[in-house]
Description:
Elements: H1 2-30, E1 36-40, H2 47-63, E2 67-71, H3 78-85, E3 93-98, H4 104-107, E4 118-133, H5 142-152, E5 157-160, H6 166-178, E6 183-186, H7 190-198, E7 204-208, H8 209-217, E8 222-226, H9 243-246, E9 254-262, H10 267-280, H11 284-292, E10 296-297, H12 305-325
Parallel strand pairs: 1-2, 1-3, 5-6, 5-7
Antiparallel strand pairs: 3-9, 4-7, 4-8, 4-9, 4-10
Helix pairs in contact: 2-10, 2-11, 6-12
Amino acid sequence: MHNHATRINLGFTLLAGLFAATAATTALADYPEKSITIVVPFSAGGPSDKIARDVAEALREPMGQPIVIENRLGAGGTIGTARVARAKNDGYTLLVHHIGLATAHSLYKDPGYQIEDLEFLGLINEAPSTLISKPALAANDFAQLKKYIAEKDSAINLANAGVGSASHLCSLMLQSALNSKMTFVPYKGTAPAMTDLMGGQIDIMCEQATNSIPQIESKKVKVYGVSSMKRMGIPALTAVPTLDEAGLSGFNFSVWHGLYAPKGTPRPIVEKINAALRVALKNPELIKRQEALGISIVNDDRLSSEGHKKFFDKEAARWSGVIKSAGIQPE
């Protein structure tokens, strides 16, 4: 009798296991069955938010579901990232983050997550920055600006949009390349910094082309160079030299964005999202919008999960060196 009961229980256990496995496989095959949330760890209307919304729009068709954007800002992007790192790994909560993800562990003692808590889904784009100044600055090209910085040094105010922001990272590279000690002035975002730069309260800023093109076009700021190794194809910037050709040999800085999921997201779901991302990044409307902002869409091996991770590790190592040599202690 006892053996018979054991056999029945064993049979039920095997059946339950089989049903669970079948249900899991069906869930994977049916993914996605509902809307997907992309968390942006920065404010609505900012460059990362604009990019995430454009990508979400282009992802909607290949994913076959609506994509909802959730802005979870604060602490240099770490709050939103930690939210995704702790989310259920079922493919319904994703993250769009920029270069700041590669610097977070060098800038913060405890950002609230580990890089190992995330799955890499593919790199999205790269955006160069522009070196700009207040309109009245007494320098009309990069050679004059370099001389001006050497003379004034710490008397020059260099604005940034907060610790870990793209403008902060670009400023660190600029300080290092010029061997200068300009005074960093952090703001709570790009908009107030740009307002003070146009108003002449701040001297210089190294800001994403996405944010500075309108001000450059309307001559509300002066521009001295772009941070990529190639000149930009946008009408307002075609005549602007790269900082590399202007005299800062090898200067190469771009803000990139990637797509991430919580660790342990099943491989078939990771592959499904990656395949959809590849389709989305070929969307002509998305390409047109990004190029108008001076942003190039990634179209190489960094589009794969493995290529994205490899690139990320190189960037994290590079920035760890830049941040240490600047004498910045993690907060």
